[in-house]
Amino acid sequence: MRCLIFAFPQMCHACSYRTTGPYYCGSCGARQPERRVVTPAILEQRKRFDARLVVVQTHATKTAKAHAAVRREFLAYLAADGAQPLLCASTPLDVVRFLMSKDAGGTTRVHARECPFWQYGGVMAGNLCECPKRAAASATNTTYGYLRAIFNHAGLTAQWNPVACAGNPATAPQVESFVELVGREQLASGVVKKRAPLLGVCVYRYVIDGYLQQTVAQTLKKQFVKVALVLRDALFLSVLWHTGLRAGDALRLLHQQVEESRDDDGKRVWILSVAVTKSARDTRKRRRIRIQDDGSYYSPMSLMRAYKRATSKLGIRVHADSMFRNVKRMAAGHHRLSTTASWAVMTRRFRETVRMLSLPPAITLHSPHGSLPRLWRDSGVDHVVICRALDWTLPTFQYYTDTDRDVLLLPVALALVAATIAM
C-alpha cells in the first residue's frame, strides 16, 4: 500500500518507482529519505550550527592528532613485528613491547646502581657514562593513556580477559605494572622530573619591567599595535602570577568573569570566577580568586588600565569577551580585536622576552603557576590561608609549592640579601 503523507510525487532512490510517500516505496519496499520543507530561517539556523561544529572540532584537534599519531605508530610496529596491523588482534604483550620500542628515541639517561654518576640526577651527568637512554616515564605514561583511549574508541571497551583474549589489551595488569615499574626505575636511578623553575618576586618584576620598556620604545616609533600586544602579554603574566592559574585556564578568562570591588581598607579588589580544567581537581564548583591591588604597576589592575588605554588609541573598545585577544589590522587604518590568543603565540612571545632580558631559557609560562603561593609559603603564611585564597586543594598546594622545586632569583637580589646579612 502506497503512503500518501505528502501530495507531491517523488522517485524511489532504490528502484526509481514514482511514489508520493516519504517512508517506504510501494514497489520495492525501500525506506525513503524524509522530505523537508526548507525556509530561509532554517538555512540561517543550519549555518549557525555548522559554525558551532567547527568551533567544537578545533578544540579537539590537538588530542585527535596525538591519538592518530600514536595509532599509526602502533599499527606500524605490529606490521614490523610480523603481526596483523589490527587493533582487535593485538595483545598486552604487543602493547608492552611497543612502549619499550619508544625507548629508542628517548633522551633520559637511566643510570645503573653501579654507575658513579647515578647520584647526579640523570641528565646532569651528560654523556660521561654508557648507561642507556630511555623515554621519560611521563612520556611512557602519556602514550599508555593514548593507547587505552584508542582501543576504547575502536570498540574494545571491556576489561582485558586473558582467557578469551578479548577486551582492551592496554588495561591488562601486566601493562599497568610495566608503566609503574618504568617510573620506579627512573626514580631509583636519580632521574628528576623536568619542572619549570618558579619565579622569585624580583624576576617577576624584572620581566614586567622588560615588557614596559618595550612599550616605551614602540610608542616612540608609533607602533601602537605592538604596544597593545605587549601590554596584553604583561597583563597575562600578571594574572598568572597572582592567581596561580594554569596558562590554558587563564587564556579562557572573560571580562565578565572579573568582578571589581573594594575591601575594608578601600583598596580595589578583583574577584575572579574561573572554571578550571586540572589544577583544582574539583569540578563541582567554580573557583573564586581574590586579587588585591597593591598600588604598584605590577598588579593586574594597573596593567589592565594601561592595556585599555593602548587599545583605545587604536579605536578599539575592550568589551565583555576574552581578555587576551589578538589585534587585526583592517582597511583605512582601522583595527579590531580578532581571535583569542593561543597557547603557542603566548609561549613564543614570552620566550622572546626572556631571551631579550638574558634570563635562563628554563623559564616558561609554567613558571608563574605556583610562584606566588611558594613565596607566601616561604614567608610563613599558613597553607590553609593560601588554599583558601586561591581555592586550591591541599594536594594541589603541596605539588606546586614543593620545596625541592627551584625558585629563580636575580643575581642583583642575591647581592642585596648578602649585603643586608653583612650589615
Chain-wise SSE layout:
Blueprint: E1 10-11, E2 18-19, H1 40-59, H2 61-80, H3 92-101, E3 108-109, E4 133-134, H4 137-153, H5 173-188, E5 198-199, H6 201-220, H7 224-243, H8 247-251, E6 258-262, E7 268-274, E8 287-292, H9 300-313, E9 325-329, E10 335-340, H10 343-356, H11 371-378, H12 383-390, H13 394-400, E11 407-408, H14 411-422
Task: Assign the CATH superfamily of the largest domain.
Answer: Intergrase catalytic core
CATH architecture of the largest domain: Orthogonal Bundle
Would you state the CATH class of the largest domain?
Mainly Alpha
Q: Give the mean pLDDT.
A: 80
Q: How many individual domains?
A: 3
Q: Look at the helices and sheets and give the structural class.
A: mainly alpha
**CATH fold label of the largest domain:** hpI Integrase, Chain A
The percentage of residues in β strands lies in 5-15%
**Total number of helical segments?**
14
What summary fits the major beta sheet?
3 strands, antiparallel
What key phrases describe this protein's structure?
423 residues, mainly alpha, DNA polymerase, domain 1, hpI Integrase, Chain A, 3 domains, two-stranded antiparallel ribbon, 45% helix
